[in-house]
Amino acid sequence: MKSSGVLLASTDHLQMSCRGGTGRNYSLICAPIMGKSVDQMLIEIGKAKAGGADLVEVRLDYLNSFNPRQDLKILIKRSPLPTLFTYRPKWEGGQYEGDETQRLDALRLAMELGADYIDVELQVAHEFLSSISGRKPENFKVIVSSHNYQNTPSVEDISILVARIQATGADIVKIATTALDITDVARVFQITFHSQVPIIGLVMSERGLISRLLCPKFGGYLTFGTIEAGIVSAPGQPTLKDLLGIYNFRQLGPDTKVFGIIGNPVGHSKSPILYNKAFKAVGFNGIYVPLLIDDIGKFFDVYSSADFAGFSCTIPHKEDALKRCDEVDPVAKAIGAVNCIIRRPSDGKLIGYNTDYIGAITAIEDGLRGSHTTNNSSGSPLAGKLFVVVGAGGAGKALAYGAKEKGARVVIANRTLDRAKEIAELIGGQAISIAELENFHPENGMILANTTSIGMQPKVDLTPIPKRALSSYSLVFDAVYTPKMTRLLREAEESGAIIVSGLEMFIGQAYEQYERFTNLPAPKELFREIMAKY
Ligand code: NAP
Description:
Elements: H1 10-19, E1 28-33, H2 38-51, E2 55-59, H3 68-78, E3 83-86, H4 100-112, E4 117-121, H5 122-131, E5 141-147, H6 155-167, E6 172-178, H7 183-194, E7 199-204, H8 209-213, H9 215-218, E8 222-224, H10 240-246, E9 257-263, H11 271-282, E10 286-292, H12 296-302, E11 308-313, H13 318-324, E12 327-328, H14 330-335, E13 340-343, E14 350-353, H15 356-369, E15 386-390, H16 394-405, E16 409-414, H17 417-427, E17 430-433, E18 446-450, E19 473-478, H18 487-494, E20 498-500, H19 502-518, H20 524-533
Parallel strand pairs: 1-2, 1-8, 2-3, 3-4, 4-5, 5-6, 6-7, 9-10, 9-11, 12-14, 15-16, 15-18, 16-17, 18-19, 19-20
Antiparallel strand pairs: 11-13, 13-14
Bound molecules: NADP nicotinamide-adenine-dinucleotide phosphate.
């Protein structure tokens, strides 16, 4: 076992490539079953089978009443999937508070009645395994587990824990820790990848999600997939549907390249659906995951291998991302924000780009061309227009830069006036505070582009500008795309303006990023179909 805390430095990567190669992964998907009665559990097991799980973890500690011999017999006999029985006590994070002898007797009985696996906690594993010594049925496996609900220890400490679990005679080692930061997951990947015995290495919490999604890449024995969103047996479990339908779990292997969206929050992003569906459609060996990141520098320091090949970047990291790149494309440098980062295969350097403005500016131009507000058909219809950008973050800078490039006169309105002034100075424009927008109507036929997150789910009732102030605008664009029709767009349409949705910007910037990630042409029609569906 390596003792370095850094994930997958180049030697690790080499070993990983050697280990893979067949393209087939053997990691399983296990659905946790937490019904209150045996009947309810059987219904859930049926759903797990229909949803594509490989096995079920029957959580006996969730049953309201439990008659071991009768109930285990029924569950084992009637389950269409292999069964793993877990009877988790309170002291290890479960529900069971009764007698320990009865608890372990029930697990022994499950083994005798034909269970495929049982899970016992490290604390009682020695005693339990010696009690069944010489009596284990063929193909029956004991998982010995350890759960840490506080944090993720160092690689050294986890290695010691794994060795202790192995010493009990476990067939499969299970380590579940808690991520306080996404970099914690790297230590569990490292342990999982180098393990000489079958291992389940999972990191709980939203920041640990990639430990579950990337399980086949690092050779984990199984990951958990729930039959319903939010009904989890441990924090951070994805659904079966997402594992199979979005993250292409069966196609993942050691050589799969990892891409992802860096953000905070990041759960709302539609990018994982878009890229993973496109990867699958063209047979590209990649996965695109949400990366909930607190410190982008720390993330890049730890996930430094070529396996982590490319990233999209959203709130609030676009400006920090620029500082963390080894090289920055001149347009991104001028904008001062990066929304796409590629790890250059030849030398591992991080190269930053900005693809944000292309999709938005093109969509706004198309919107204007389709209207009667301009007769300028050869040059950009934005030339000479007064273009008001609301927001001075990454997207705001990109839109202001793009509009200026097209010959518009740019005004930046922002909550923090100093940030608006910075951009105004940079590109040669005017800065106002967001509060001034209400009475800002120097002329008619202006363009408004919201680039703040105001109006984004869940706060869909908010809008950056009162409706009465919208009458001076001929076109209103909103970068927010969840929901597709924001309050701002609805009120703009009611006021007679052309509206352009953030979805157009999203699709436009996604084409650009996809081509950089894969070196393949973006399947544009597919992108539109996917976005129309989700
Ligand atoms: P960012 O760099 O964090 O900037 C956020 C901006 O919003 C800042 O100007 C901030 O003002 C302002 N803001 C945030 N909350 C506010 C509030 N409650 N009241 C007033 N102003 C507020 O974020 P970003 O990356 O530019 O993204 C901004 C928005 O654009 C997000 O909703 C994002 O989803 C969307 N976006 C969409 C696409 C697309 O493809 N459609 C692409 C990129 C971004 P201060 O300076 O005062 O903090």
